[in-house]
Amino acid sequence: MDPIMINSVYVVLGFFTTFFIIAQVVKNNAIVDFAWGLGFVLVAVYSLLAGPMTTRGIILTILVALWGLRLFYYIFRRNWGKPEDFRYAKWRREWGKWVVPRAFFQVFMLQAVIQMVIAWPIVLVNTAEQVPIGPWAVLGIVVWCVGYFFEVVGDKQLADFKKDPANKGRIIRSGLWRYTRHPNYFGEAVMWWGIFLLALPVPLGLTAVVSPLLITLLLLFVSGVPMLEKKYADNPEFQQYARVTSKFFPWFPKGE
Hints:
By secondary structure, this protein is mostly helical. The protein is built from eleven helices and no strands. 70% of the residues lie in helices and 0% in strands.
């Protein structure tokens, strides 16, 4: 295996271990969410600088940096100084005296492993020799831009909605949220499909499909949509919203 690929694994493990140590000091395992976007940026920049630095690699690294840095800033601004997120606080109570080792393996190292799999197309592109930019790359960039639009605009619309005191406890149903209950999660999945298309022409490019498949499955069935919808399971307004609005893929509300 290429040394850059091996070193990328060490970079991710070291990065998440550092965040784990910080989390124990501040007693807040939710800061792992800060690490998620930054970890991809770190891998992209490292593998780009250590590799042959191709045009495709530079484009991909810029896209990853735009996404990862924005996500870090968005989550940091939203969560910094607030109590531990309800998900991690629940696990802290359930794990009791085992909270430290279980947080290390089940939160930080698990996310590190998942990140290494999702980052596969990044490392694949950045360790490959120059491959001419063609239709697949252009399509990948276009798809990525669509996903970025859904994530950024969806997050902005939600933030603006929550700023209005009149909306406290209410469910946003306007803008992109009118067509999908999770435009930001949909956007994130679409971006990784764009990254896959960008990686497709390089050697072993087809294997990069594991990245968008994994992130899409995680968002749809594990850590994204299910956890958030469970939080609002007893909210009558959300249940009415869910009856007429697509869960993930954007579509017109039922009845229109």
